[in-house]
Amino acid sequence: MERFVVIDLETTGHSPKKGDRIIEIGLVVIEEDKIVDTKTTFLYPETNIPAFISNLTGITDEDVENAPLFDEVAEKIVRIFDNSYVIAHNVAFDLGFLNAELERNGWGKLTNPIIDTVEMSRILFPQAPSFKLGQLAEYLHIEHHDPHRALSDAYVTAKLFLKLKEKLNQLPWETIHSLRSLEKMFTSDLDELLKKREEELQFSSSTNKDIEVFRGLAYRKMEIPKAAKDRRFPYSFGEFIDYIYSEGLQKLFDKYEKRMGQQEMSELIYDSFQSEQHALVEAETGIGKSIAYLLPAIYDAIQEDKRVVISTYTTQLQSQLLEEEIPLLEKIIDIPIHVSLLKGKYHYISLEKFHDELTNNQNNNYDVALSKAMILVWLTETETGDIDEIHLPSSGYLFYKRISTEAEGIRDPHSPWFHRSFYQKARKLAQQADIIITNHALLCSDMYNDYQFLPSYEKVIIDEAHHFETTASHQQGLKLDYRNVMYLLNQLGYSDEDKLTGSLISKYGLDKTEEIWRRWDELLNTAKYELDEFYHSLYQLALGREKNSPSYSDIGRLQFRLNEGKTNLYSAGHQEMAANLTYLFRDLILLLSIMKQNYSQLEPYDMDQIDGKIDALQQILDAIEQMFLAENDNIVKWIEIDTKSTQNAVFLYCEPTDISQILQKQFFQQKKSVVLTSATLTINQSFSYAVKSLGLTDETFATKKIESPFSYAEQVQVLVPNDFPNISSRNTDDFIYATAEAIISLAQITDGRMLVLFTSYEMLKNTYTIIKESLEVERFILIAQGITSGSRERLKKNFQSYEQAILFGTSSFWEGVDIPGEDLSSLVIVRLPFQPPDHPVYEAKAQYLKESGENPFMEFALPNAVIKFKQGFGRLIRSSQDRGIVFICDARIMTARYGKYFIRSIPDVPIHFDTTKNLMDKARSWF
Questions:
Q1: If you classify domain 712-926 with CATH, what class do you get?
Q2: Closest Cα to residue 86, out of 115, 120, 118?
Q3: Which CATH class is domain 3-168?
Q4: Which of 49, 343, 853, 895 has its CA 20 to 30 A from that of 229?
Q5: At what angle do helices 482-492 and 515-548 cross, to 10 degrees?
Q6: Contact (Cβ atoms closer than 8 angstroms) between residue 222 and residue 425
Q7: pLDDT tens-digit series, residues 634-690
Q8: Which residues does the annotation place in the binding site?
Q9: Motif DEAH box: where (predicted)?
Q10: Per-residue pLDDT tens for 749-788?
Q11: Across the chain, how many H-helices and E-strands are there?
Q12: Is 567 helix (H, G, I), strand (E, B) or coil?
């Protein structure tokens, strides 16, 4: 069957069971890989079209007033689908709706084979940034003239399907063969397409020189280019940057405007490198700090023939450096630049582990099968093996834990897989790189592990440096949660299970009646039982606090501290249970070690498997001891539970209350020059907070604040209402209603295009609900973190794809979200971003500072809030053409004594403190 009919529907809603009806149908017929026919018609739904649907589609009640009823066209529709595949972008919706209408009108359901282009796109274009139709069309350069209209969407889906078939025909036989073994788990009926292609390839002599095949697994060849040697710049650094900033960048950009602050930053960093001192540089928005620090890093690395490390907090910035900034500079600089990205082992897929899992279909559910299929195709494309390149389904990441390089344990260099390791390739590239790009987490892990993860370096630039102290604390700390510990025990398995121990017995024909296996099963069973009891007891302990003084994390988990100095808030019974667990884990480690000694026939791979599990058990054992059995004053321990999840959804954490001395001794004293840069390092024009928290007090260092070239006074208006209700921890309702009303009023002035930043997920959810129920916002698309599904990046793209949208965010949305141009016209800051005083880390640090004779509010709470506020404020103006309004619902910025710290830490902008009505009038006239 080579006939395909693509369908797309526009409807009055999402549920035919609730009375929603079809208002437009679009059909596109494909034969012999060509579009041969199209059909479209309005349908009279016998009900009114909601305003939201009319706003989205442009279809009104008048358009469908004289349209036929579904029953009048049903026979023609059914006939079109004869001997055809049914294709749709989310086929469950369109076919489900069509079948419901057919049944309602006395017709039978269509039972044709189906293809879902969402699913097929995930498999065949795993690196696409999104799988929504509009964004896929943009990614694949398919013109989409009339989104949310049935024929236009069906036509684009047909074009997408033809692209998918084209991609399928580019895959090697081994990949097609493996996809066929997974096909029965898919929604789409792809077997005939895969079988046909598999048969064509069996008789084909052509080969792809970029693809290598090992043990039936096809992947892109891992080629490591040779690094150029004996490179030097024939001019001084001054001459180098004078050329770049005056002529080089001018050649690439017709409208390039030189920014003095950018060159000033480059010179300061190079001087710090040459004088071997540390530096803190605050570079406000618009400076172009990436180029500013890349130039001295590249020049110094090549001239000195010593690598420079650049560390970022977000993968987004890493991608920007690798894919935009460095290729740009390579066009100007004649000398080859060797740049490498290096992450932790978890990020890189293990071909060996994936090969083993590919042959094991016993544990396949839909997400696992889809993940395997996506990875199979991605392996024919990726040069890095970095899993961050693709977006696996949610539970696919649990599967990925089993196939990451981290799951390999200690790797035998003589293994045939060792030289087929993406992680080893990344390490080799890093060894010969001028510039290594990494992240704060790996940089800190390297520091805490005697610098064994990264190749040696003396100079480092830390971008997004306001996160460095927090990351260093997290990496020095521990995380212990029930699901991961139980996952490890389940991976070890009983002697009669197809897990580690059972597979060893089966593979080597071992005698499972031996005493060691009886003892193993008994011990594993006891460990699981004790673990359940321990975490259940902790869950109940935390639950008891909910009635007392509940405190919630920014993702809605109940949380509280487990210690106050030397005083533990858990009982001696919990310590006894923790001690019992450590004994059991030691015994499990001992038995695994005996297995290694007793069974000399074990292959190196299986020895590595056992070593990896021993290491994992030891890490958990150490964490339990540190959390419950060790005494340490300079540490905060806390617990979080998810009360909406299953029992034992318990997460345990600990980290130092003060990391500054560790950073000073283990990092700043070890490196010749560390440059820390960010748009938010100063508080009230001073670097003192950053200097102290990072442990730079006894070091020689330079500081420089480089102001933005933007005309903030002309581009921004700050509005602060003086008539909002006071907010208290016990009564937030009036404040939330006032906030919701202000958001609605401002959105009507700015046509949406609004980002609303919250400090509390609970407040976000309540405000969203009020606005959602308001009849006045039917024309706006509401997108909310934690409510609308998708990652932060996905939510941002959805926001940008609609003309009238409001984006609600908390926590991570305060920074790193760039929405330049007219897509964002207003920013609402609901509350000044103080951390809740009952947050465990805040409580512990406040107590630590108080005992040291310092003021916790002025020394910790206020600086952190100001930095986050500056980050949030920076979301609005991203270019010299942007203009907009910042609406701050929290009057404390004007009335509290500490308000001046927030105001003095942002650019000098007009601030209006007035009634909400007057502020709205001001906004209306300004726009």
A1: alpha beta
A2: 115
A3: alpha beta
A4: 343
A5: 170
A6: yes
A7: 888 888 888 777 667 888 999 998 899 999 999 999 999 999 999 999 998 889 899
A8: 283-290
A9: 463-466
A10: 988 889 999 988 888 989 999 988 875 666 788 888 888 8
A11: 38, 27
A12: strand
